[in-house]
Write a structure and sequence with these properties.
The structure is a single chain. The protein is an alpha+beta fold. About 25% of the residues lie in helices and about 35% in strands. It contains three helices and nine strands. Strands 5-6-7-9-8 form a five-stranded mixed beta barrel. Strands 2-3-4 form a three-stranded antiparallel β-sheet, with no helix packed on it. The longest helix has 18 residues. The protein is globular, with a radius of gyration of 19 Å.
Length: about 150
């Protein structure tokens, strides 16, 4: 019993460190459907700490975006997504490396965290990534995003 106290204390300390390293999302901020071109018009809000950035577009605040488009290029660490209005880089991570077959020309939808590099390029780290097999989804997506933007 005497030897277990330091072990418990060290477990708590390492757990606290893991919790500090975790990025906390504000789940009260909804994920919104966007055209890629609209993301280049967002404003970044000032952040305190290392939490994911909060962006605003018109009167809407968000941390995550919902995109859909065609994969036009696949590289080792990223893929290029084109939705017809613009392009963005999709960073390859464990979510992207799912068993679905991702290849050039695939229609995909994803929810992810946007980030702008110093050279102005848009990078999105996916949280959810799905390959779509219905080509009609592309047209429906355009209508859905236009509808959401009118609200």
């Amino acid at each position: 019993v005497r030897g277990s106290a330091p072990f418990v204390r060290s477990m708590n300390t390492s757990q606290e460190l893991r919790n500090k390293k975790k990025r906390q999302y504000d789940w009260t901020l909804a994920c919104r459907k966007f055209f890629i071109s609209d993301l280049f018009q967002v404003q970044e809000e000032k952040q305190i700490g290392e939490n994911p950035k909060i962006f605003s577009w018109k009167d809407f605040r968000f941390q995550r975006v919902w995109l859909q488009g065609i994969i036009t290029s696949i590289e080792e660490k990223q893929a290029l997504l084109d939705d017809g209005t613009g392009i963005c880089y999709i960073l390859r991570n464990n979510v992207y490396q799912n068993p679905q077959k991702v290849e050039k020309g695939c229609l995909v939808t994803l929810i992810g965290v946007p980030r702008f590099s110093n050279d102005g390029k848009l990078h999105v780290t996916p949280i959810k990534f799905v390959v779509l097999d219905d080509p009609n989804r592309e047209t429906m997506w355009m209508l859905e995003v236009l509808h959401v933007n009118q609200l």
